Amino acid sequence: MRREASLALLEWFQAAARRMEWRETEDPYRIWISEIMLQQTRVDTMTPYYRRFLRLFPTLRALAGAPLDRVLKAWEGLGYYSRARNLHKSARILCDAHGGRLPASVDALTALPGVGKSTAGAIAAIAYRQDVPILDANAKRVLARFHAVREELRRPAVERSLWEHSRRMILPGKGRETALAMMDLGATVCTPRNPECGACPLARWCRARRQGLQDAIPRKGTPKALPHHDVVLALVGNREGKLLIGRRPDDGFLGGLWEFPGGRRKPGESLAGALRREIRKEVGIGIEVLEKIGVIRHGYSHFRVTLHAYRCRKAAGRVRTSREWKWVAPGALGRFALPRADRKLLELIAGRQPHEGQVRERGTT
Ligand code: SF4
Question: Could you tell me which CATH number the domain at 228-348 has?
Fold first, then answer.
């Protein structure tokens, strides 16, 4: 049965494979970039980024030699920025210690920052045609349904058995095709909702289908309510009309990106009070709060924020903290990689210049 199912999957793949430009290349560097970009990102979103990234950094050495700011700028808008930082870090490691080549073994690949076991398997299978398994979200769903796995897929014992199922799907010499076929089957037929079992090459052997469990597998956990924070953001202008932006520390959330200063409001605090406190703490200067620019609601993977943006004026003191700060002309902000929320703010004020005026606070409760 296993061999027949694998053959049916490969036959289906021959006819139904999705055409993607990173499948037309044998270059491990390009395949690595595509696999990292595809983590948590849809193909249609990722494709223009992939093209632009490779125009800017056509080789591993070009990526290693680029400043991190340039790499983050190329990634701007794609989210999960640790992926870009890890690619950059890995490129430097590979140039320093591996002759500028991406290794072929799963063990050596997983030693690179940001490369997990499934990504390593995909690179080894696709770029180096090795018979190694993958277990990305698509493959995991297909295999869980195929074997009618009803438990939570995140449990270590369940995951181990899925890896084994994935490995056993591979016919000798067909690691590349099997990996791609499982990815495609999960993306186009055995989709998270409403799988098209009638069009599935595995239907004859699929236990979930036989038991009518397609919609119950994978088992869904209870969705957690995301915490919400009110955040104040200051567009601090100086006498030359430049705006203050700071670079986030490289390690951590949105690391290496530039942003307008600000922070979370404490319980019971006014928005203007939160602004003054945060800017004093973060930048070391006193500010005069001028006017409210607008409110932006933004969601991240693990929390949501309501951003209250204010135009402010530097009132006292000198910028002095361990962070890197810059005064930048509004027209030059496009050169910096900013988080999406800060970009939204720029769109909101597009065409308007910072100005000096009376304090006109609104909505500060
Ligand atoms: S038969 Fe249905 S549930 Fe089973 S693998 Fe195919 S699409 Fe998924």
Answer: 3.90.79.10
